[in-house]
Write a structure and sequence with these properties.
- The chain has 19 helices and no strands.
- The radius of gyration is 22 Å and the shape is globular.
- The chain is mostly helical.
- Helix 3 packs across helix 10 and helix 11 packs across helix 14.
- It folds into two domains: 205 residues, no CATH class; 236 residues, no CATH class.
- It starts with a helix and ends with a helix.
Length: 454
């Protein structure tokens, strides 16, 4: 959460110093490199985390060796493909340099995998967050300083490489692991069995999102300017998602995997996660959507981002629905139902691609944000699939925060002044939630306090 706060605060000066084209270039490049990471990971790390038994030394050495060999092959291939990829995505010289830097960072990240996996299996997030926070601080300081100095796209290149180098030794200090090389067929076979299935979902996700971004960067009605507009507002709209949902799912994946045989604990965990996430997400995204126009009016230098406001409204609605879907998909993965999540991903791809192309032709880059919103309405299908694994109350988990958010939104819409609308909206929301969900609030507060006391 601390990392996400730092990242969010970094967006404020970047909106002043970076152009939409510079941000769009970064988005286009960062959509390419995850394809290489896919072939490096192959789901082996997730397989180690999900594994019921404690990983052996052979397991760890096997995963490290396989990933290291793969990353060297993939990086070499990445450099060879520089020409056609840069031509297809219309990258400038700075964009190509950023692409090369991200390939190098891919190698550095692969060296962190085993220490990070060990901490995650032990649910030792109090340790794992330390290098993440340090890396985020270094990244933010470097990119803001260089963006202020006018480096534009090159700001990203330096920020990525410096933060990656700084973070590497910290992982090994906090989670010591003596690097070992070797491949055990006995270890590799079961890890691949789960990992390939899990990674198939990741590959489908890349097709659904990243490949679509690469294609959109080459379309005249979107281009890097349109990607920059949608990209900035998506970062704002999804900032509470990254702050809350990513933090929750990061913890719940290994936790749900540990208790996957205890259906009562699993049910309670799902319902608590949905309630807490909706309690925070819903009011923030609604307040953000209703305040954006007023904020831009107060900050003339941000007027360059005004054309992206319609996209923001779709993105905020999508973020709210995705916050629920993220918890549910995470539950399916943690309980071993990766075939189900892969099928879901195929279904979403078949929806998102044609819908995006149609909406982009009709409404320009706003269609890039509108299409995912309509696809996110399938959250009820995801809930149905999870309910087949473990019975839980889906709508009942978030209905009270939703009702309180609607009341808050009506009040904010009727009040003209920005600060007054935020103040009145906050009061109405907190009072409404207390009246509607007092018992749930008290129950979750007791659980959280008990955890901190431990």
């Amino acid at each position: 959460m601390i990392s996400q706060v730092i990242a969010l605060l970094t967006l404020i000066p970047l909106g002043l110093y970076l152009s939409p084209v510079a941000l769009g270039t970064f988005i286009a490049v960062s959509a390419i490199t995850p394809f290489f990471n896919f072939f490096v990971e192959l789901g082996l790390g997730s397989a180690l985390i999900q594994k019921k038994e404690e990983p052996s030394a052979e397991d760890l050495k096997t995963v490290f060796t396989v990933q290291t060999l793969l990353v060297l092959v993939i990086i070499s291939l990445g450099f060879l493909l520089t020409g056609p990829l840069s031509h297809f995505a219309r990258l400038t010289v700075d964009g190509i340099n950023l692409y090369h830097v991200l390939l190098v960072v891919l190698f550095i990240s692969s060296l962190k995998s085993i220490p990070s996996i060990l901490m995650e299996r032990r649910i030792a997030f109090e340790r794992q967050v330390i290098p993440s926070i340090i890396e985020q601080i270094v990244y933010s300081v470097v990119i803001v300083f260089l963006a202020y100095k006018g480096f534009q796209v090159a700001s990203y290149s330096w920020a990525f490489i410096v933060s990656a180098i700084v973070g590497l030794p910290i992982y090994y200090y906090l989670s010591p692991w003596r690097i070992g090389v070797g491949i055990s067929k006995k270890s590799l076979k079961p890890l691949f069995a789960y990992g390939i299935l899990y990674q198939s979902k990741t590959f489908l996700s890349l097709i659904k999102d990243n490949l679509l971004i690469i294609v959109l960067s080459g379309l005249p009605r979107v281009g890097q300017y349109g990607l920059g507009q949608v990209g900035l507002w998506k970062r704002w709209a999804y900032s509470p998602y990254n702050f809350i949902v990513n933090s929750v799912t990061k913890v719940t994946f290994p936790t749900y995997a540990r208790v996957q045989e205890d259906r009562e604990k699993l049910r309670a965990g799902i319902e608590r996660s949905l309630f807490v996430v909706s309690l925070i997400m819903f009011p923030i995204v609604v307040a953000m959507a209703l305040s954006a126009t007023k904020v831009l009016a107060m900050l003339p230098k941000y007027q360059v981002w005004g054309p992206g406001l319609p996209a923001l409204y779709f993105l905020c609605a999508e973020a709210a629905l995705s916050s629920l879907s993220g918890i549910l998909v995470n539950t399916l993965d943690a309980t071993g139902h990766v075939k189900t999540t892969s099928a879901l991903m195929i279904f979403w791809i078949l929806l998102i691609w044609p819908l995006t192309i149609v909406l982009v032709n009709l409404y320009g880059f706003t269609g890039v944000a509108a299409a995912p919103f309509f696809v996110s309405l399938t959250v009820f299908l995801t809930a149905y699939l999870v309910n087949r694994v473990v019975k839980f109350n889906f709508v009942g988990s978030f209905i009270q925060p939703l009702m309180a958010t609607v009341l808050m939104g009506i009040a904010m819409f009727l009040v003209g002044n920005l600060f007054l609308s935020l103040f009145i909206g906050a009061i109405i929301y907190f009072v409404s939630v207390w009246l509607l969900a007092k018992e749930k609030l008290m129950d979750n507060s007791r659980v959280i306090l008990a955890a901190f006391k431990k």
